[in-house]
Predict the 3D structure of the following.
Amino acid sequence: MAFLEIDGLKKRFGNVEILKGINVELEKGGFLVLVGPSGCGKSTLLNTIAGLENITEGEIRVEGRAINDLHPSKRDIAMVFQSYALYPNMTVAGNIAFGMEMRGVPAAERQAAIDKVAKILQIGHLLQRKPSQLSGGQRQRVAMGRALVRDPKLFLFDEPLSNLDAKLRVDMRIEIKRLHATTGTTIVYVTHDQIEAMTLATKIAVMRDGEVQQFGTPAEIYNNPTNIFVADFMGSPAMNLIPAKIDGNGNGVSVVLDRESRQPIVLPMPGAPAGLSAFKDKQVIFGVRPEALTDPEGAERNGSNIATADCHIEVVEPAGSDTFAVTNLGGKGVVARLRADARIQPGTSTPLAFNLSKAVFFDPATEKRIL
Amino acid sequence: MSAVTSPARPASSGASARTINRIVIYGLLALFAIFYLMPLFVMLVTSFKTMDEIQNGNMLALPQSPTIEPWFKAWGQTCVGLTCAGIKGYFWNSIKMVVPAVLISTLLGALNGYVLTKWRFRGHTLVFAMMLFACFIPFQSVLLPMATILGSIGRFGVTLQNATGFNFGLGNSTVNLVFVHVVYGLGFTTLFFRNYYEAFPTELIKAAQVDGASFFQIFRRIMLPNSMPIFVVTVIYQFTNIWNDFLFASAYAGTGDVMPMTVALNNVVNTSTGVVEYNVNMAAAMIAALPTLIVYVVAGRYFVRGLMAGAVKG
């Protein structure tokens, strides 16, 4: 039995179904990230776990006990909001202690709890200030302190970093990860940022239009996306999704990528995987991540299936740590990720290595994974 | 302004045009200000003059031998109708009416605004629209129905008096006026608070719910402490309206020693025995106007913006 179980959860507003049957579970001490584009229902799902929204169907269980009919304050949860939602009329200490005050915890005990949390988050010097006198990062810490002080079964984070500037966001991301590692709490975290999802999660649920597209570990989601949406959404730069044709010759198959005014690239797929053979002479979507399309020297040496082809480079983007090269395959711009010192010029042809053991294939009609 | 928006114009003509603009604008403003302040000035100087001076002198002239005697007379001795004990009793009548009426209508308006924005229910827009209707009702049209209702309440008070020996204030003129002003103030106070709370971050309410605060705890601990600007606006508005009300006051408490200040002032001026004591009348009028002035001066200081800063992202 998992620690948090969401079972067939549906949410309707009138006739509009916002959540269409969500099934997700999380082990104790896990870090579940709900990720997806805006309007996919991830925040609504979090609010139903918090009890701020009612559910239409299904069940939410914590440690086997259904909580979906309990008042938010009775669910033993704490929530960090996107806007931090600090009470502007109270000091930092008052904000942190408000929940305990509402539950009638004696003042001495409250003070001890405030001090403990202030120590963890290093906000001891801010306790007597009002939220308006704090910087964005400090407010974020106070909001986390307000959640931490309750020592709840479950932490809920609603896009907590989206109001911070880029550098602070990275710092706070590490902070949250460290907090999770040291306190061993169970966290459900909503974000639209796939990097946050990848770096923080032990489990990711990728959502779209009120449905979970894929649920798994970050590595599963990244390496084995179940459909085009997940493949495209996770990863930066995004996965190259190239229209291709499967060509069968005898008992082997190969992937044919069209190019403008050039010979098509033919990539042999040894062993003729069964899934691909069924698509012989048909169109597929060939997915390859930028890091699996690189210069031959930089290619993974022990990759079991690497094919090299000359490609015409249109744009070169040196990013410091890597160099990105854009070529055109199957009528689409395709990004390759090269070593930082790769000698490469736009407008020239250069050999690129396709790591086919990392490549994935999708059916263009159903958008589902073939192989 | 025009010089700012069209910087391409030649500097010299732009500058002179701007000067002329300024002169016209400030000249007009000064004219309007004088026009508006003139009656107040006349009232003020007249209230410090002796009767001789008023009868023989210029209305706009400053008092030759200033005296505060008219103020004392207005407060303690002048005749209101047939009783000659000054206006002080009526002044307190007004205070006793206006303070509860303002506080109750403001708090109820805040509660309505809180429910209509943060605890929405099916048909909340309809309820709000109907409450707004109260802002557009001409008060003359409700005089008779309200009189009937107040009559019924009064009779119920008598019944209670007979049954329990105490009428719970029902039928009392001041209580009646408080009731009337609360009912007819609700439309405005609800409108004010509803619009203010519409922009109030809902995440604060959610956070308080997760923290375990109840409906009224959220109202008292989160909403009210962060409503200072609109609270002050509403209090000023309601205080001015209720204090200055003459229609309801004269209709439901128009005689005897239950009259509010406005009705009493009218009776002071209308007393037709002997010489018309303009200085006393003016002093009485000034006293009647003072509380609203004081509310503006005192409450206006708290009318500060930016109290919500820091609630949500900076």
Summary: Chain A touches chain B at residues 47, 50-52, 71-73, 77-79, 81-89, 98-99, 102-103, 130-136, 139, 146, 163 (CB under 8 Å).
